[in-house]
């Protein structure tokens, strides 16, 4: 079993995709490979529609730590196998808000036909969107408007409930750092979504000037102040580095807390 994961330290995209499929096939009985095109893997079960697996995030994780190949493949195939389970109604208690930026909307629209009109999301500011998804046991599942309509509730109710659910899903929030430059952590999946919480004040984050943040990836929030030139430069550099080589990217912009929410900082 372990020899399957012994490989050169720099797999190509296609080699990584082949390993992903080989492991997923062990978890899903009768799974067939339709095609592999770089980091896009298309599979199917007999008499079923095709399933597309996009491995950009998993491959980025692997590249950052090639020795962790086994764990990365295991984590993502474990989540992907849920795609093949029978569909169930959305459970309101599992809906969570997920922060994404314009890039995600654009790229998803290229991959999924009519994505903008079929999925459930709302604009947060000029750059960011709140997508609504189910926090399932092994994965985060974005749902369509068709499934959403079965709940028979409005978008404002969904937002309120999603933030309430998020409060019970995230681990204990912790502030790290000093001297006006901080990082906020809460378990690794929903840090970016913490911008929706009522925690953004100078008491919690003693910075020089107004609060500004960077959310380059879903598990990272950096905080400093508008009057802190050195830490602003540090923030910019960190955001750029993560956007170049990180996974589960959210934004390459900086946001300022104004009038109760974060807006693009210029």
Radius of gyration: 20 Å
Helix content: 25-40%
Low-confidence stretches: 1-8
Domain module tally = 3
Strand content: 25-35%
Secondary-structure content class = alpha+beta
* Major sheet characteristics: 6 strands, antiparallel
What is the arithmetic mean of pLDDT? Answer: 90
Number of strands: 13
- The outline comes out as globular
Order of strands across the main sheet: 8-9-11-10-12-13
Number of contiguous helices? 8
Order of helices and strands: HEEEHHEHHEEEHHEEEEHEE
Q: Termini separation (Å)?
A: 52 Å
Pfam families: DUF1444
Protein name: DUF1444 domain-containing protein
InterPro entries: DUF1444
Any overview of this molecule?
By secondary structure, this protein is α+β, with helices and mostly antiparallel strands. 33% of the residues lie in helices and 26% in strands. α1 (13-27) crosses α3 and α2 runs antiparallel to α3 (69-80). The longest helix is centred in the last third of the chain and has 17 residues, at 229-245. Residues 1-8 have low confidence and may be disordered. InterPro entries: DUF1444.
């Amino acid at each position: 079993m372990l020899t399957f994961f012994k490989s050169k330290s720099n797999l190509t995209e296609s080699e990584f995709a082949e390993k992903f499929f080989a492991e997923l096939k062990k978890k899903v009985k009768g799974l067939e490979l339709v095609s592999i095109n770089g980091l896009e893997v298309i599979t199917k079960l007999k008499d079923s529609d095709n399933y597309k697996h996009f491995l950009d995030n998993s491959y980025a994780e692997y590249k950052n730590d090639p020795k962790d190949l086994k764990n990365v493949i295991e984590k993502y195939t474990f989540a992907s196998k849920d795609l093949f389970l029978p569909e169930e109604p959305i459970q309101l208690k599992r809906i969570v808000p997920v922060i994404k930026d314009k890039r995600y909307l654009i790229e998803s629209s290229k991959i999924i036909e009519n994505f903008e009109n079929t999925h459930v999301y709302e604009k947060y500011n000029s750059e960011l969107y709140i997508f609504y998804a189910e926090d399932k046991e092994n994965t985060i599942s974005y749902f369509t408007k068709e499934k959403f309509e079965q709940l028979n509730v409005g978008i404002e109710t969904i937002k309120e409930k999603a933030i309430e659910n998020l409060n019970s899903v995230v681990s204990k929030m912790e502030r790290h750092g000093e001297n006006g430059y901080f990082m906020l952590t809460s378990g690794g999946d929903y840090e970016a979504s913490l911008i929706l919480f009522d925690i953004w004040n100078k008491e919690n984050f003693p910075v020089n000037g107004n609060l500004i943040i960077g959310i380059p990836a879903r598990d990272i929030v950096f905080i400093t102040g508008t009057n802190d030139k050195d830490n602003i430069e540090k923030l910019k550099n960190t955001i750029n580095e993560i956007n170049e080589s990180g996974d589960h990217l959210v934004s390459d912009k900086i946001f300022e807390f104004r009038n109760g929410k974060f807006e693009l900082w210029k």
